[in-house]
Structures are given as structure tokens and as C-alpha cells.
Write a structure and sequence with these properties.
mainly alpha; Receptor-associated Protein; 3 domains; 3-stranded antiparallel sheet; 16 helices; 76% helix; extended
Length: 402
Amino acid sequence: MLFKYKSIDNTGANKEGEIDAPNRDIAISGLQRRGLVVISINEENEKKSIFDISFFEKVKMKDIVILSRQISTLFEAQVSALKAFTMLSVNTENKLLGHKLTQIGDDLQAGVSISGALAKHPDVFSDFYVNMVKVGEETGKLNQTFAHLAEYLDRQYALTSKTRNALIYPAFVILTFFVVMTLMFTIVIPKLSAIILDSGQDPPFFTKIVIGVSNLFVHYGFFALIFLVLLGIWVWRLSSTSRGKVYLDNLRLSAPAIGNLYKKLYLSRITDNLNTMLSSGVPIVRAIDITGDVVGSLVYKDLLADVADGVKSGLSLSSAFEKHPEQIPGILVQMVQVGEETGSLGNILKTLTDFYAREVDGAVDTLVGLIEPVMIVVLGLGVGILLVSILMPIYNMAGSIS
């Protein structure tokens, strides 16, 4: 809650401002700790508008990685949590993150724990992040916890960025292909086909097909554009529903080449999350539940919920995984089983994380290596066939005239 207050400081000067706190009593307590005498304090409803700072700026994963490393360093230097968050709120380049850190600092001053203060900003700090910090508070190893979080987020950021960037180039080439074809059919082909038709010659069969497609684009292209817009709206609305998200997620996982890439990416996230949380002392069922929330796939989230239920009922982690052979490969089940039997599950999960990270790297490199030449060839053939279908009759006509 946001409270607006009026107060007097120890010099007798009037001070006004805002403080974020869970309730009125904690807000007053926080102000008194600052040496202020509270005159009045009232809850203020935050008004959101399109001019709100969050509309223009977002907190990226890279910002959280840097923040975690800075907090770890400050804690190692024996800097208090309140002072650390206050310093970082002033020095951070991201204004939205700086605003969040200021609110966290106010909460800490009001007596809220670090994990409790972070939990009030789920749009920036995930459930996974908050629980890791909570474990760090309980074990007294906050500096190590933030260092582990920075390393984990750094790995996930690098892996996700490489996968996303690898798909940008094919998408750009495909878009370029459709733009070039559209321009050919609507601008170039009609002008050339007019020359052929005015000559009175009977054009070849393939030329007739190209001219017919061109006429469709020219006369009915607007309706095709409307259809594409409606299709885009339908997909957007579908992706906003739970059933639609699951359907699109299944579609992505079953797509040729790309599906295998996403599967390895999700498996890498699962093993990395479990390894990070289990090594930090988070109970296994809680670790599985949190991993489901941050894995980024509804299919695997439902799978992990079923795995958590299995573990609660007395199954081992490997046995619970074994019930899902389509999403969880046999090698992962066997490795987890070995880890459980030898008491080295953490090391096994780390090995699996490294393995799937390399698999994602290899799959990305292979995908880019295959798509690039294929797209260039398809683009060249498409344009070439169109030009040949139109230019050959023109050359034949020129030859007959000469």
C-alpha cells in the first residue's frame, strides 16, 4: 500500500512524502525510525496512466543479473541490506528498477524482510528469486545466494538470448520473401503481363498461372490482407486463454526442428532450476512447483505439477519423471535415478544442465546453418521462376518481330 504522510524532522522542518508499506502501522513505524514525527498519514490509491514509468521502461533479465552481482558484492563487504538497496536505487540506470529498489528500501526500513519486500514486486522478482532469497535469509548466506542467482540468471539469459536471436534471422528472411513476392505480383508482373497480352500471343501454361495469381493479388489482395489481420487477432486472442496457450505451446513443441530446440531449452531450465534450488536447501516438492512457474511452458508446467504430486505420494523424482516419456527423455530419467541412488543428485543435475545447454547451442547452430542457405535458395528460385515465366514470352515475342 502507498501512504502519503506529513511529518516534522528533528530540526523542526515540515516534511511530506510517500511511503510504501504493508499496512498503516508499519508505515508509521518506518517513518519514526527515520527520526520523523508523523502529523498525518493517509492511504493513497496509486493512479496508473499511460504516462506511468512502467509504460516506457521494463526491467530486463540483464538488469536483474547485474543487480544480483552488486548486492552479493555489497553483502560480502558487510554493507547492511537497507544501505545496499538505497545505494543501488540511486545508481541504477533503469528508472523503473530504481523506483522498485526505493520501495524495497522503504519496506526494509519498516521492518519487512528482504524476501518479503522483493515478493511485493512479482513483475520484477520471480517466485524462484524470492524463494532463493528466503532460503539465504534462513541460512545466513545471502551473499552466496545472490551470487548463485546472478550466475543462474546469467546462464538463462545467455541461453534464451541465443535461441531467440537464432530465430530472428529466419523470420526476417521469410518476411522478406513474402514482401518481395507481394511486390512482384502487384507491381512488376502486371506491367510485364500487359505487354504479353497486348501482343496477342498465346502465353505458355506457366505464364498463365503467374498472370492469374497476379490478378488475384491485384484485385483481391485487400481481402487477403483483411483475412491476415483477422487471423492475427484470432491467434492473439487464442494466446490470451489457458487452452489457447497450451495449444500453441504444444504446436511449438511439435514443430519440425524448432520443437526439438524448445524441448532442450525447457529441459535445461528444469535441471538448472532444480539444481540451484536443491543445492540451496529448498525442499524438493517446493523446488519442483517453483520450477513449473518459471520454466516458460504450460506443457512442462502441467508436467511438473504432476511430478510434484507423484513425489508427494512417495515416488522418487526419477519415477515421477518416467511417467512422461514424450517430454522427458530416458537419458534424463536414468541420470536422475543414478543421482538419487548415489546421493549426488545435485552434481547429476548440474551435469544435465551443462549437457542440455550444449545441446541447445548445437541445435541453434545447426538450425541457422540449414535455414540460411535453404531460404536464400527458395527466395532466389521463387523470384527466378516468376521472371522466367514472364520474360520468356517477351523474348519470344521480340524474336518473332525481328
